[in-house]
Specification:
By secondary structure, the chain is an alpha+beta fold. 26% of the residues lie in helices and 26% in strands. It binds NADPH dihydro-nicotinamide-adenine-dinucleotide phosphate and magnesium ion (MG). It is found in: Cytoplasm.
Length: 431
């Protein structure tokens, strides 16, 4: 019987100089690299099984790659197929994993495999949970949500131009272990990911064996498809722990801007907590990137808000929206979310002294054009219906280092954001 990975580790409570209580999770920090002769498992059994389980998808993408431009055509057709309502509700039909590979995984065993693959890498960065608890205690366990743009493999290697990042740090076989290690370290109940271009061959098979139910919605014209040897389109993915939540409904949304269909997508799902029977909506999105597209992002944000109004029946159901908005807090799209009738607040503001300021950065990289340090990623939540009990601190400038991200230590140019939520005992009218 599968057990929630969270239950496998205990958390220690510490108080730092600022007076904030910090929760540290012992045993999850990779120790300094062991000597070269350190014992390693005979074979990475679980990681290898994930690849085997998605053999159909992988062999398909490999065959297609040798066809040059055909790659884009085939995956465009695939993306269109996924856009159709029947397919988008049942994307699993694209792969039929061997039932043997759906056996539950012990998260500790997978973590050990990841660490063995990463044994030459520098130690994991230490990040602490900051306790933000308000006075209202909850009898139910919190809902831990992770927001993370994990960096599409094809974009990282082929398009992003991270000029200070060594190419070896971008190798998928190791980078995927850093990503999995981050997920296993924080054990979210819900995972909201952007730039996922290894859903079918890595995340879906592995995370399903860890007890998650996943949904993937690729971008209609993913820029990954322009990269040689790509692994398919990138898109948003949403995973939730099946032992904690029941799926009530799910919508794959292609965002519009001024009535035009765009290349950006969102997934919105209504979940019911099995412990409390409370329902809430969780959404993930990745808005249009780059300067010059501010009005476009604003229009996409309005479209997403309108969709979420409908799904939450005019804010009757509490809402959590995770995303790489590609917008600083000064942008219009941010202001739309902050002032929406959905009554949303941005969770990471609560880490600031006055609770009013976003963190100084959620992404930090060096491109040919120079250094890019921005706050673009957010976790919005219904401020009357939900409370943020804790939030994972960001990496410091010193931890990030002079070459910025991604790096041998950290697999993406965006930091993961992780929050623990609980429901407030509020009447519906205050949502
Ligand atoms: N075949 C066709 O007919 C069409 C093809 N396309 C393809 O889609 C692409 C555009 O797609 P769209 O979704 O609008 O892309 P976006 O502009 O939203 O960006 C795509 C990715 O590029 C990253 N990015 C942001 N800034 C830079 C930068 N300065 N240099 C390199 N990468 C960056 C973003 O990462 P982050 O979010 O982390 O910043 C994002 O994941 C086109 O380049 C084309 O390849 C698009 C339309 C039609
Ligand atoms: Mg990116």
């Amino acid at each position: 019987m599968y057990q929630s990975p969270r239950r496998l580790c205990s958390a220690l409570l510490q108080r730092d100089a600022s007076g904030l209580r910090r929760l540290t999770t012992p045993g999850l920090r990779r120790q300094s690299p062991p000597p070269a002769a350190a014992p390693r498992p005979a074979s990475p059994r679980l990681l290898a099984a994930a690849s085997a389980a998605s053999g159909a998808a992988r062999s398909c993408s490999q065959t297609v790659c040798s066809m040059g431009n055909g790659t884009s055509r085939l995956y465009s057709a695939l993306a269109k197929a996924l856009n159709s309502s029947a397919a988008s509700q049942h994307p699993e039909y694209l792969v039929s994993p061997d039932p043997e590979h759906l056996e539950p995984i012990d998260p500790k065993e997978l973590l050990e495999e990841c660490r063995a693959v990463l044994h030459t890498r520098p130690p994991r960065f230490q990040r602490d949970f900051v306790d933000l608890r308000t006075d209202c205690p909850s009898s139910h366990p919190p809902i831990r949500v992770m927001q993370w743009n994990i960096l599409a493999q094809a974009l990282g290697e082929g398009k992003d131009n991270f000029v200070q990042c060594p190419v070896e740090a971008l190798k998928w076989e190791e980078r995927k272990c850093l990503i999995l290690e981050e997920i296993l370290a924080y054990q979210p109940d819900i995972l909201c990911l952007q730039e996922v271009d290894h859903y079918f061959d890595t995340f879906q098979p592995l995370l399903s064996r860890l007890g998650y139910q996943g949904t993937f919605f690729p971008k209609p014209w993913s820029p990954c498809l322009d990269v040689e040897h790509n692994n398919g389109p990138d898109g948003c993915a949403l995973f939730f722990l099946q032992n904690r939540f029941k799926l009530v409904n799910s919508a794959n949304i292609r965002l519009t801007a001024m009535t035009l269909k765009t290349n950006q997508v969102a997934i919105a799902q209504t979940l019911e907590c099995k412990e409390s029977s409370r329902q809430f909506c969780i959404a993930v999105t990745h808005l249009k990137a780059r300067t010059g597209w501010e009005r476009f992002r604003s229009a996409q944000g309005c479209d997403l808000l309108q969709n979420l109004q409908n799904i939450t029946q005019g804010a009757k159901i509490p809402l959590i929206v995770c995303g790489d908005f590609n917008a600083e807090p000064t942008e219009e799209v941010y202001k739309h979310f902050a002032s929406s009738s959905l009554n949303l607040n941005s969770a990471y503001k609560l880490l600031s002294a006055d609770g009013q300021s976003e963190p100084p950065y959620t992404t930090w990289k060096i491109r040919t054009s120079g250094e890019c340090r921005h706050t673009l990623d957010y976790i919005w939540y219904s401020k009357h219906a939900l409370s943020v009990r804790s939030a994972l601190d960001l990496l410091t400038e010193e931890q990030i280092g002079p070459n910025r991200l991604p790096s041998f230590n950290y697999p993406s140019d965006h930091l993961s954001l992780v929050c623990d939520f609980s429901f407030n005992e509020e009447p519906d009218g205050l949502l």
